[in-house]
Amino acid sequence: MRDFRTAAAVRSACRCGELAAPTPGLALGHVQANLAVVPRELAFDFLLFCQRNPKPCPLLDVTEPGDPVPRAVAPDADLRTDLPAYRVFRDGELVDEPTDVTKYWRDDLVAFLLGCSFTFENALLQAGVPVRHVEQNRNVPMYRTDIACRPAGAFRGPMVVSMRPLTPADAIRATTICARFPRAHGTPIHIGDPTAIGIKDISKPDFGEAVDFKPGEVPVFWACGVTPQAVVMSAKPAFAITHKPGHMFLTDLRDTDLEGE
Amino acid sequence: MRDFRTAAAVRSACRCGELAAPTPGLALGHVQANLAVVPRELAFDFLLFCQRNPKPCPLLDVTEPGDPVPRAVAPDADLRTDLPAYRVFRDGELVDEPTDVTKYWRDDLVAFLLGCSFTFENALLQAGVPVRHVEQNRNVPMYRTDIACRPAGAFRGPMVVSMRPLTPADAIRATTICARFPRAHGTPIHIGDPTAIGIKDISKPDFGEAVDFKPGEVPVFWACGVTPQAVVMSAKPAFAITHKPGHMFLTDLRDTDLEGE
């Protein structure tokens, strides 16, 4: 069994084909990132979309056109090989789910790395705030809302949120803790009544799996990193690459590096 | 004398030609913004430069190509008419300093509005932290440093900083206060020895005017909004528009809107 305590070890295992599995729990304490790759001609609009919607789309790094190296967050990495699994889209349709996208790489591709809720979940767990889907060993429940993202060019659509059941007292503690991590979705966007943000049935998430509520708990909603992927897919770009859900990129950043400024 | 207590009143006076003067002190408590306008073909690189250098280049709003309305921060405004004075550049050379840029506007222009130190200076003054250049009724002293910004495409260059003399105790209070305003340059980037960041003579600023030190005060340096303008000018784009220094855009945002997330 390889030692996956460092981000470099995880990336190396991906690169040589040893690791093609989901990344939760790997290199604990290192920032994991969502990946979205679009051609240069769409990159301004997508960057603008992220700038206008920082809670669902917290930017960690953006590469120069054609450059597969995320120089700010992992200067030794190669985004073509260092994730466990990818999704490749043509005209919005999934056409491949490879473990290496070297053969798809082009000189005009721009890669975006976006912060992920794993960062604040680690902080919640360390503070003793329960994270139900971790306790129940399920995927986090995610929902489409009726909160419109601010559009940018071809990119538009509703915000997708993740949900964690908490007591009101823990919801308040979680808000304070998550405020420290604006580049990992930050504070919740809603606490309480799901219908107030357009969610009809909390027991039927649009993505992921439902989780159980304990007495006295209310649903707490955070902006979710699935939002930019959903928005990219609905824009149906001629070509795009993303990570396979749950199969994230391990950066060299520590969770604590995302605190505050 | 017109009432300049609201941002809309200041913009209206600019629009009808009544106001062509610097804006410090106008519509106090409203966020003032730096303006940079570049053609669409350079907009991705400039947006990326701002994303990579958030302390000197805190983005408040970016317009769609050709749209002169900053919809996030002042949906009733027109960036072609609502600033007191502009600078127009061709190939990096200043060619005009008009009070209206309607005749220069093009369908491919993208406008960037960036946060300004007036926001945190108001907060410092309210907290009783002295702001020397305000006391001395001078322009703030600004210096080129040897701190390289992270480049993006054609945009590269050193960080420009502003300087305020403070006692160490006030420097610590100022750091806490400015941490609340990440979109107005946030915390200082350096306290103390100017030579540590490549400044040879503190009495000779590269922009603005020198200010006096009192016994026991040390220089405190903040990332400065002149940085993106200097970087745009040194990239010598075929065409660009900026505000005339000190003649800022008044947004509808309140200083308190920039606190935290």
Commentary on this structure:
The structure is a homodimer of 261-residue chains. Chain A has 261 residues and is an alpha+beta fold. In chain A, 22% of the residues lie in helices and 25% in strands. In chain A, the strands form two sheets. In chain A, strands 1, 2, 3, 4, 5, 10 and 11 form a seven-stranded antiparallel beta sheet that branches. In chain A, strands 6-7-9-8 form a four-stranded antiparallel beta sheet. The termini of chain A are far apart. Chain A binds chain B through residues 40, 43-44, 47-48, 51-52, 54-55, 59, 62, 64, 72, 150, 152-153, 179, 182, 186-187, 260-261, and chain B through 40, 43-44, 47-48, 51-52, 54-55, 59, 62, 64, 72, 150, 152-153, 179, 182, 186-187, 260-261.
Gist of the model:
2 copies of one chain form a homodimer. The first copy, chain A, has 261 residues and is an alpha+beta fold. Chain A is built from 6 helices and 11 strands.
Shape call of chain A: globular
* Assembly context of the chains: homodimer
Q: Round the Cα radius of gyration of chain A to an integer and report it.
A: 18 Å
Q: Which residue ranges of chain A are poorly predicted, with pLDDT under 50 across at least 5 consecutive positions?
A: none
Most strands sheet of chain A: 7 strands, antiparallel
Q: What percentage of the residues of chain A does DSSP assign to strands (E)?
A: 15-25%
Number of strands of chain A: 11
Tally of separate helices of chain A: 6
The arrangement of helices and strands of chain A along the chain is HEHEEEEHHEEHEEHEE
* Largest contact between chains: A-B, 22 and 22 residues
Arithmetic mean pLDDT of chain A? 93
Helicity of chain A, as a percent range: 10-25%
Distance between the termini of chain A: 37 Å
Structural class of chain A: alpha+beta
